[in-house]
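If it is no trouble, might I ask you for a protein's amino acid sequence along with its backbone structure tokens?
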Amino acid sequence: MLENLRRLWWLACLLVPLSVLHVTVSWVDAPQHAARSMGLSAAPDARLDAQADGSAAAAAAARAANVARWKEAVVVVHLGMTANLLIVSAMIWWARRQAPHVRAFQGVLEAWGLISALGFTIVVASIDQWISAGITPFLIGCVLVGSLFLLRPQRAALLYGCAFLVYAWAMGLTQGDDARLLSNRVDGLIAAVLGFMVSLMIWRKHVLKETLVSELQVTRMALQERSTELQSMAVRDTLTGLWNRAEIMRLAQRELTRAQRHGGETCFIMVDLDSFKLINDRWGHATGDRVLAAVASLLLEELRATDEVGRLAGEEFAVLLPQTNLEEARLLAERLHLAVARLRVPLGDATVRLTASIGAASQTGRALVPVPQQFERLFGSAEQALSSAKSRGRDRVVVPPPMAPLV
């Protein structure tokens, strides 16, 4: 609807000056046309016998009267259409800038514009019958409306059907020759059918375009979802939803790079579930997966928003603590250790209890060595702390003394 209003507005802007020009040309040229008509009729009369002078003069007078009447009608119709177009274009300009609640009014404007366009061509074709037998305005109007506006087939059929009926009635008012009247009505029916066929082709093309655009949007959304899914699969652990090993290591190196520029301490915690193989052996791998997912959710709940957590492999997890000193990391590790010990995973009548071995390490920023070397030292220190916790009987937290700065 809005597209039709936009096209109707531009059409009105084009037709207003054309209507004014037509009025001007008709007003100036009509008397000369009448004089030429009378002269052309009088010239052969000068070569005829005196007996034909009366009938020739009467025919010329009638033709001149028709021309004068046609001139007046053309001026009135074009001035009326100009005023109508100005009103319609002003109302369209206002309606297109309003909220959706004026949609009904926009529909009225659309119908008004289309009926005015075809009605104008019917009136012009009718008054043209006073000086000619052509129906060119109606033909142009039918094709123009069909090609410029997007009309559903039902609406187009109703519009062109009513237009032809009005056209056929109007032709009878101005065309006195029965043969020409029948011919014009037949030609008008052909023009209406032609306009409807043009409108139908334009509508089918529009529907096809909209269908293709819709399908393209659906395909694009599906591709975006698939791309997002693939990107997530590339950095996320599919079971727990945590960062995978490669991504948590990348994030750690990025944080070490930031710390090297701005200073600060970075800590790394490794969490390993004790005797996890016994859970898989006793209750099955599906239960083991449930336990891993529960631990992942627990870690996310206990950590700060700025911390990062990932799954390294199997039952081993890693926690990255930006801008955190070793004492803060130790306190967090102790809290995680207690949270894991309190965790219960129900399995029907039984529950699974867990313990965890945890190791932590820190790396001071502004080291004068490459970041990969810093990360290797940080990761290795956390791994040694975790191994120490396991060798001491598991179910404990081990935090080694701060490492000496790398120089």
About this structure: Strands lie at 265-273, 308-313, 316-321, 344-347, 350-353, 356-364, 397-398. The domain at 245-398 is CATH 3.30.70.270 (Alpha-Beta Plaits). The radius of gyration is 44 Å.
